[in-house]
Amino acid sequence: MNVIIIGAGTGGMCLAHGLKRAGVSVKVYERDHTRTDGLYGYRVGIDPTGNRALKECLPPELFDTFVATCARAPKYLNVLTERGRFTASFPLRDDHDPVNSERSVSRMTLRQVLLTGMEDVVEFGKEFTRYERNADGTVTAYFADGTSATGDVVVAADGTNSRVRRQYLPHAQVKDSGVIAMSAKVAVTDETRALLPREMFEGLSMVLAPRGKFCIWHVMEFKWDRDGAVKDGIGGNEAELVEKWPGLLYDNTRDYINWGFSASVDKYPANVMDLRGEKLMEVALDMTRDWAPNMRRLITLSDPGSCFPINIRTSVPIDPWTSTNITLLGDAIHTMTPGRGVGANTALRDAMLLCRELTSGKPVVEAIAAYEREMIPYGFARVKDSLAQNGMNGDDALHKPVIGRLMLAVSRAFFSVTDRIPALKRKFIAAQYAYRGAE
Length: 439
Description:
7-stranded mixed sheet; 15 helices; alpha/beta; 5-stranded parallel sheet; 17 strands; 439 residues
């Protein structure tokens, strides 16, 4: 069996590792021209579902390297008002368990981990244009540079704007959620560290503000310093793994504070998607005029080159289709908003499941059918959950001026009461971990 994967993203590369370990012939075709193109150094939370998939598919030492290169895990989940008042602060579990834990990783670093040892598998500069089915049952993928590749299986791992999906499932649509987000990084310095209270600096924090405005704050502290050397206090196997890991040569991720602000489209200037850098930071400051001074100061101190807008999109669920030797994973089939923080983890779950089925000994189409029977329900369930969370649907009443205030008050009351009653607090945290795959 020869498997062709279109796209070297998180899910596609996890699948490629699993297939390679199982002795299956696999090639990945990526439109970026080099391994450092298109790298965004923002946080992705890897939950137990994602950890489990990476552990199963990656070589053992590379999984250990993944764990070693994660940032410090958040110690708290905080909920705040826009004025900086804590509504709730939930202590999180530590990350000592390699699977049943929450991990913070830079997208840039994760990509470098997944590219490690795959030089013979990944081809860069291959922009997929179309595929053709052949008389012998194989599929040929064609690329913009005039080349092609033929395989027994084609896997679409080419993201939200998947060209494979457009040809294979033309009725599968992705729509705007009605919400726009903007994000930026702030270097960790003595000044920026002092602007965040301890629980925020050591945690993951959500700001719930009137009219559906929402902001999330993460602090990413890595095991290497600004010069790329392993920090003092990092020892043993972790230090050795980081020091000898070739991916660090390509990685410019350094300690940073990341903020991500979102609101419904009508709250923004009409040209917001054309803005970048300082112009976009000015929009963020204008939309947070009555917010806590320390939050606004952090926006001011952001790296302008890291500030960009995102039009949040979401898949429209479709009915199951007749399985063939072409299939899809991750955002290529179930793009979801960041509302529940499970997009990357769902792609990793897809990769683990598809790898299991393709290496099960079943006929190819039967294996893919088994994968799709399981993937389609959980994938679109996550799409629905993510759209309903944190005001990620622009039509939600939370974004309205009057009823939105009432809904905000109810939400804040829920978190406040939950935070103050130990039994409710434990139940809330347990439910979050269960949703994210913890055993």
